[in-house]
């Protein structure tokens, strides 16, 4: 059963909970990546490009807002999401067969 930070009595407890959370985060990233793959399939059928700048901006702003609401540094989390979005776009481009010049 997961422990709250306050329930942790040792660094072993803390490390165990961080490892548990890291595993859960990777599982969520895997799930997100699956949606990115499906988005590329749908974009292909709709004749859309991988990179849709308005959506990129929206996702980055969502990351900032979500971080702020959670009491976290919005600049840091926007940076993480910017990297995530760039990786997602590259994956979509590979599925769509887009080259760098497109």
UniProtKB/TrEMBL annotation:
Keywords: Isomerase, Lyase, Pyruvate. It is an enzyme of class 5 (isomerase). The keyword Aminoacyl-tRNA synthetase does not apply. Its EC number is 5.4.99.5. One of its GO terms (molecular function) is isochorismate pyruvate lyase activity. InterPro entries: Chorismate_II_sf, Chorismate_mutase-related, CM_dom_sf, CM_II_prokaryot, Isochorismate_pyruvate-lyase. Pfam families: CM_2 (PF01817). SUPFAM superfamilies: Chorismate mutase II (SSF48600). SMART domains: CM_2. Residues 5-96 form the Chorismate mutase domain. The keyword rRNA-binding does not apply. NCBIfam families: CM-like. This is chorismate mutase. It comes from Pararhizobium capsulatum DSM 1112.
């Amino acid at each position: 059963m997961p422990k709250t930070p306050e329930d942790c009595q040792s660094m072993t407890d803390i490390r165990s909970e961080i490892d548990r959370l890291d595993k859960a985060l990777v599982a969520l990233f895997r799930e997100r990546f699956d949606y990115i793959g499906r988005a590329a399939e749908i974009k292909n059928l709709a004749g859309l490009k991988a990179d849709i700048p308005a959506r990129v901006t929206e996702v980055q702003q969502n990351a900032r807002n979500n971080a702020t609401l959670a009491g976290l540094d919005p600049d840091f989390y926007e940076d993480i999401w910017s990297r995530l979005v760039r990786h997602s776009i590259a994956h979509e481009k590979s599925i769509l067969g887009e080259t760098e010049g497109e």
